[in-house]
Amino acid sequence: MTSEASPFRALAGADEPKPNFFIVGAPKCGTTSLHEYLQHHPDVYMPYYKEPHFFGSDLDGSRFRQFRDKPEKYLKLFRDVRGEKRIGESSPWYLASERAACEIHEFNPQAKIIIMLRNPVDMMYSMWSQFRYSGNEQIEDFEEALAAEAERRAGKRIRRAAHCITGLYYRRMTRFAEQVERYYDVFGKDQVMVIIFDDFRADTPGVYRAVLDFLGLDTSVKVDFGVRNPNKEVRLAWLQKLIVSTGFSLMLLKDRLTYLATTSRLMPYSYRTRAVEGVISAYTRYERRSPLLPETHQRLAAEAAEEIDALSALLNRDLSHWYKPSSDRPRPASAGSPTAATRKSKRRRQFIVRAISILVTVALLAVLVGEVKWDEFDQLLGRVPALSWAGALLAYLALNLFRALRFRVLLDKDNTPWRLLAPITLYHNFLVRALPFKLGELSYIALLRSRLNYSMEEGLSSLFGARILELLIIVMVFAAGVLTTAEALAAQHDQLLFVIIVTFLLSVCALYFGGAIIRALRGALLPPLRRLAGRKRDLVTIIETRSLHLAGELDRIRQPRLFLTALFISCFTYSSSFLTNYILLRALGVTLDLSGMIAIISIGMFASAFPLNVSGFGVVEVAWRFGLVQFAGWNESDATATGFLLHGFQLFAAAAYGLAGHLMIHLSPRMPTSQDEDPPAN
Hints:
The chain is mostly helical. Helix content is 60%, strand content 4%. The chain has 28 helices and 7 strands. The protein has helices at residues 7-11, 31-39, 71-75, 100-107, 120-134, 142-147, 149-153, 176-187, 197-202, 204-214, 237-244, 250-263, 269-283, 294-303, 305-315, 340-371, 377-382, 386-411, 418-434, 441-452, 456-485, 493-512, 514-533, 538-556, 560-588, 594-607, 619-632, 636-667; strands at residues 21-25, 44-45, 86-90, 112-117, 192-196, 232-234, 284-286. The strands form 2 sheets. It has a 5-stranded parallel β-sheet, with helices on both faces. A two-stranded antiparallel sheet has the order 6-7. Helix 3 links the parallel strand 2 and strand 3. Helix 12 runs antiparallel to helix 13 (269-283), helix 18 packs antiparallel against helix 25 and helix 21 crosses helix 25. It starts with 6 loop residues before the first helix and ends in a 15-residue tail after the last helix.
């Protein structure tokens, strides 16, 4: 223990608000995530500035000296406390320090201690990667950096700008057993909570509730468990090397900016923090870390086996899976995984569908190209004035912005950044039109996952909901247009409108309650299907799986506010798409009334959903040709040429806006991805 004259004991009597719990480490074990999750609890105060390292007087590095012997500067971090029950502080190097536990105890003997640990090999590799980003590590090879530990103890191979020299002793900082035991001895086990990163990653909400219970707080508070501290790389590595070669530490600059954001009164808190995050994002790009070679991982894990066993005994928990070869680890049964025969059958079906799609597309294009008088195509283009082209482009942009807005509603996340979602929608729209076999649809899910850290389920749900709503609007409006245009049905105009409205309302209800309806049908139809199938139940299994998946997707949009808002926005997506084509058709000389235009345009829009084609080629032109011949009385040659023109315009507009979206995506700072190794994967 420290002496009676300890400055930490003297500080304990100060009147200012002071922390009463500490997240003491270890680094790269989820401490940043937990710190930020706790920030959102109304009964917890966590300063924006993380890692002051006021305690731990034996820690070596310029970063650890910023608050040392400056108690007034340290307490300033907590001056915005407004009666919160718990005041916390997170400094992950306290765990590695031999003095921090006693110093914290001198400061507050009743303090609660939270320790977070992970597989030591993963932690070392993650720490090395973090140090390369921050400029603390000069060795570009992980194994070489580990081998250099002895030289570094002698003061060699340490960068002049290194801000955390203690952290460069990678193996020493993973002596978890003695580090945890030190806190047990000083505070007692009742005041110490140890969290294993595997648990935190697998069940973040559950571990978070356990932390709140440990701190004596309300466990019902909801938090967005997003990624908080992913793997990072510098955007301009050459610039970083130039700066750190002068002995200047970029990490210290970041710390000082963050401290100003925490304590300054010159501008609102949100502006201060955004300014700092803007500087950091300009310097940073988020990329998944290259995996450590399996043989290297296994060798290092075997070296750490004795230390891991000691920790297992201390925590009374088996952690041997951290060093056992993967072949020795128990694996969960993969009952739901597809067999080789199933995968082969699926590939065969995909091949057949794609072959048919190619044949249909080639056959349709061969017929259509022969119908067009290409020597007159220039005259057709000349009919459209520049103002009409511009108006159609603006309407097409509005269409995609409304689609982005609908995605935002269906994702049901108020914090979805528009600056990323709008470009993602533009780029996705282009890929949907350009890539064959609906492969472009996957781009939306992939971009949400990589850029916004949204799960595959969230992407699929919002995409599925958007497509269903769009198709519903098109079909209903098309039916209204056709039925009101047909002369033979003119006498039943009012009755038909009533039927269409009732059908639309029933369809909306069926969509809203779709999950429950599908499950009811599944329960009624599957038993007789199984009896009919006998031993050949592959098709029944596919139907059962697909129906459950479809029901689950429909359940996701069964929220009144969300559903009605998305349906309302879908009316605007249809209107924008209609306006795009209406402008061009009017410019080309189509003079039908509104119901006739609705019929023609809806046919063209509906054709893009037809499954057996390659990117809509052939099918879309046939749809325009059919509509113009049937409802506008055009000859087949002009109608087909107009179909090519309208489809070509859509492709051009999608490519132009898609390129803009692609550039905006890559110029915007990316949100951390759930594929990164450090944060919890929730």
